[in-house]
Amino acid sequence: MLYDPYAAVVALPTPSDLALAVRLAPVIRFAANEPFLPSKVGITVLDAPGRSPSAPLDVTFEHGVVRALEYAIWWDWDIQHLYELEHIWLKLDAEGAVVDVCASAHGKLVPMRRSDGSLPVEDGRITLYSEPGKHAFHAESQSIIDRREQLTACCTAMTSAGHVLVNQMFKERLAAVTAEDHRAVRRHLQNRAFLPVFDFSKAFDLAQVECMSWPDLYTYIGPRVLQVLEQVRANQPLIRAVFLDSGDTLVDEATEVRDVDDHVVEAQLIPGAKQMVENLALDGYRIVLVADGSLKSFANILGGHGVSEYFVAEIISEAEGCEKPAAKMFYAALTALGLTGDDAGSVVMVGNHLGRDIKGANELGIISIWQNWSPRRSKTPSDISEVPTYTIANPSQLPLLLAEIECAWGRTALNPVWDS
């Protein structure tokens, strides 16, 4: 069932309610180098305690509270995902004075009181502190500084966890988001990694942001997420396919057992090979087997190990009537994905054989990745055509290399999306 922003029993804010919300709007202190700032606020007026209409949180009334102003604060970006919605609740007494404050922090509703028990007021305004990159609220900066190590990790190394945030509220609206979309957002955020400073001198007046009713903000959010995603996809190039060899790339040839017809009936995978393939598929890469050998051999080995299910297509020399480095093998793989030779520069070929995998890829302009794992093949290129674009030592290194390639493409792409 589609989420209903009107489900909570609350009246839409009147013009005077919106004016009151603007007049009392909190100030948010951000880190001096915070890259993301709010752009919209959805207002709800709660005249009784109960469930928030814009968050799965219960708002209570204490300390003489008779009314609460809910600020659902919208960002296009968090350092780890596309879109952010955090909340502040100002609780008013019968005289209209703010007597209590709560705010959201990592999915929880948290009372906003200083360590001495006082309300967080600066120059007559409720003033809260926002975590760098993550935006969870605190009443004092020290509690953020206490999380320095975790927050620094979130804003640097852990940007690799980036994705389009698809929670229950917007699940149906964002049902078309793909694993490839998540990867595009991840690369975009990896390029926005920053070392946060814990100087909260950037004061942001929430009254300066466009305020509207929560249902109006809810209506805005779905299309806005897709709009930002479209911008990211337009500016973040991605690898369009990963071609994988089999022998000594996925399968340890030293463990092969063959029958009387020279078909491989069993063999062991190289350590980390299956996990690598699973990780690539989870990240939305389209994977094609491009290998020399018999159909039966690959069905026995890769099918038996549960690897074949991750391939979008299998291009096998027995079926094609030729072996790598023949261009026909690589063109067949491109065609299977609806690609052409013009797309070669956005495709990678991973293999162990310089004279077959690397040479064949290089001659078509495909990005060549040599896996220098096997002791059974030459490690010296015979000429320039066998020099790989990149080299890895084992399968587990491939996902990181592909991420580095895509991040580099994003940094050099024209008109990158850096605005918040």
From TrEMBL:
Hydrolase keyword on record: yes
Keyword Hydrolase carried by entry: yes
Keywords from the UniProt entry: Hydrolase, Magnesium
SUPFAM superfamilies: HAD-like (SSF56784)
InterPro entries: HAD-like_hydrolase (IPR051400), HAD-like_sf (IPR036412), HAD_sf (IPR023214)
Domain of life: Bacteria
Cited Pfam families: Hydrolase (PF00702)
GO MF term list: hydrolase activity
Transmembrane segments: none
Name of this chain's protein: Hydrolase of the HAD superfamily
